[in-house]
Amino acid sequence: MKNIFKKITVLAIPFFVTLLMVSGCKEYLEVQPKSQISISDAFGNVANATNAVIGVYDELMGDNGYGIRINMYYPYDSDEMIVSGNIDNGRRGIGRYQLLLTNAELRNPFLQLYRGIEKANLCIEQIPQMALYANGSDAEKKELRRLHGEVLTLRAQFLFELIRNWGDVPAPFTPAYKQEDLFIPQADRDVTYAKLIEDLKTATDLVPWRTEVGPRNERITKGAVKALRAKLAMFRGGYALRSNGKMERNADYQTYIKIARDECADLMAKRGEHTLNPSFEDIWRKLTSFTYDPFGEIIFEVGAGGSNSNSDSRMGNYNGPSVNAASRYGTGGGGLLVLPNYFYAFDSTDTRRDVTTTLYAVAATNVKSPRRLGEITDGKFRKDWRVPLLQGTALNPGYNWPLIRFADVLLMFAEAENELNGPTAAAISAFEEVRKRAYKGNEGKMGKTPTDKAGFFDAIVNERYLEFGSEGIRKFDLIRWNLLTQKIAETRQKIQDMRDAKGAYANVPQYLYWRNNGEEIQWQTSFYKPSTTTTAPAGWTRLDWRQHLTTNLIDGMQLHAGIARFFVSGKSELFPYDQATVDAYQGKLKQNPGY
């Protein structure tokens, strides 16, 4: 997305992660940093300090950030979506959980996250030391405090991403130039979480609310800090894979669940700042058309721009429906596949189904053709929704990545309140607010909300499943609930049952019949009723639907067996440290369990 908060990197300083690429520490520390400006100049006035903070934001985006790898490789396979194609030592190795230490997709995002931490640490140190921080004009002091709050939040986001993928990671909180040994030990993630949650409490008082700072941009505001603090607290209060190879939850988990509940309650009381967009589809239409959303449902988003691999995104090019480069929409799609059980998890009247999933590909002639049941793709970031169109083979559509939406706040509140007090009226109201939007116009079909604690928790697990498809959330939710192993097994069984037309899937049709109505697809039969014939009516074309599950192969195996094929409970919940990082630490880094 074209940034209002324009990105400029101004600091060329030695980073913690640079050390991972050299063999010795002493020589590295003797090298003088090659900077165009000194640190004192970089933090000599508000404008320069702002540019330094923009340099921290830079490390969120690009191919090694939330442009493709962290947000579209790392969260899969799960029980919603999988990476497409046969296994390799890259993104598909990640998706199938065959994570070799030489996997090239692990190292560069890891380094970029630490580069972001180093930049943030320098800003966190320097900004409060600026003379203007205490003695400037009211406007200068206000802006510097905002910048301070922003970098505290950014550091928390970088470390959060490292923790949820690698577990007990080194957690530097001071700039590299002050560290005697840059190969610092791994930190207990619980201690790191506690520090970050306290930092975010500080940041809350430093940054403004969204409506206090004028037009929308990608800068962090108070709602983003509070929502991120709630999310970190939910993870600190959840299950995690420990060094003993066991999924465990700390005895003090309710302390953090309460923090999350309270932060969400504060946000829910400020509906003039953030609330649900009344239309689920409109969230994504606005995002893909670079349009301001007055509801502010996307609370924290990563800005993309520049049409390059360092600062732009690949959403819509990598994922979404497959679009031929010769079409008016330009090239795109196909990197993620929607699992058949996920498509059928939606009720036919749930408006999220046809936004989150796409049943078509776009040909060079712009005409849509249907995809079979094992070929459905995700849809929130689709290339053919882009306004203006981006024709040709451009790799970077410029879509922002949404890190936290208000729907997440509502469902975190409902989950936390249920954990603490059971399904209270407030918890049910928050849960049903999300659900009512999904069934807008058909609220009578949304079903009855459970009123027992266990039943309500299961309903939340399912609602987050339906609400956040392809947003990089599901796998990590399942880990913090200690449900990933169970859901992978259930998914394999569901797809096998669907293939065999058993149980809940007895009515899934073997074939569908379709034709084009102009460029669009018109369906002759229902997705929810069995096929009555194997012969297409005159003027219609037969599509293998459930039939496709009997022939579609992934990794040489039936689809249901190929999902997360090499997943091992007690190992695969975390990534390994790549071999180059292990070698650089010279025995000081403990590898994650099972690798």
TrEMBL record:
What sequence ranges are listed for the domain SusD-like N-terminal?
Answer: 97-232
Q: Which InterPro entries match?
A: SusD-like_N (IPR033985), SusD_RagB_dom (IPR012944), TPR-like_helical_dom_sf (IPR011990)
Its keywords, alphabetically, are: Cell outer membrane, Membrane, Signal
Primary location group = membrane
Question: Could you tell me which Pfam families the record lists for this protein?
Answer: SusD-like_3, SusD_RagB
Q: What is any one of the record's Gene Ontology cellular component terms?
A: cell outer membrane
Q: Which domain of life is it from?
A: Bacteria
RagB/SusD domain mapped to chain residues: 397-595
Where, per UniProt, does this protein localize? Cell outer membrane
Family indicated by similarity: Belongs to the SusD family.
Q: What is this protein called?
A: RagB/SusD family nutrient uptake outer membrane protein
> Could you tell me which species this protein originates from?
Runella rosea
Question: What taxonomic ancestry is recorded?
Answer: Bacteria, Pseudomonadati, Bacteroidota, Cytophagia, Cytophagales
